[in-house]
Amino acid sequence: RDPRKAAAEAAARRAGYQAAMGPAGGRKLGGGGAAVHAQLGPREAAAAAAERRLRAERFAREHGLMNDVVVIDDEDDDGGNGAGVRVISPVPPVR
Question: What is the DSSP letter of 41?
């Protein structure tokens, strides 16, 4: 097997892995880069974030991801170990 070809294939694999993993050191979750946020004032950034949350909630409801709400209750009402789980269903619709 040709060593140059093997090295080129290995380099291509590494480049693919690095592209999938993102930059070294990671990146800020939800960060679109400083340039995106620098263009918006605080009020506009808050409005954009609220709109993203609303879209995410609508998506989750449409795809059945919010049919049940699980409440983890650490109060010791029943004399048990203090870790109770309640399921509240269904979630009221968003207006």
Answer: -
The per-residue pLDDT for 5 is 94
- What is the DSSP secondary-structure string of 43-64? HHHHHHHHHHHHHHHHHHHHTT
* Cα–Cα nearest to 89, from 59, 69, 71: 69
Instruction: Kindly state the DSSP code that residue 93 receives in the 8-state scheme.
Output: P
Instruction: Report pLDDT digits (tens) over 66-84.
Output: 776 666 666 655 555 545 6
Select from 75, 49, 94, 95 the least CA-distant residue to 86.
75
pTM above 0.70, yes or no: no
DSSP type of residue 25: T
- For residues 55-71, one letter each, b for 16 or more C-beta atoms within 10 angstroms of the residue's C-beta and e for the rest, the string is eeeeeeeeeeebeeeee
Give the CA-trace dihedral at 30, 37, 60, 71, to 10 degrees: 70
Structure tokens at 34: 């400083």
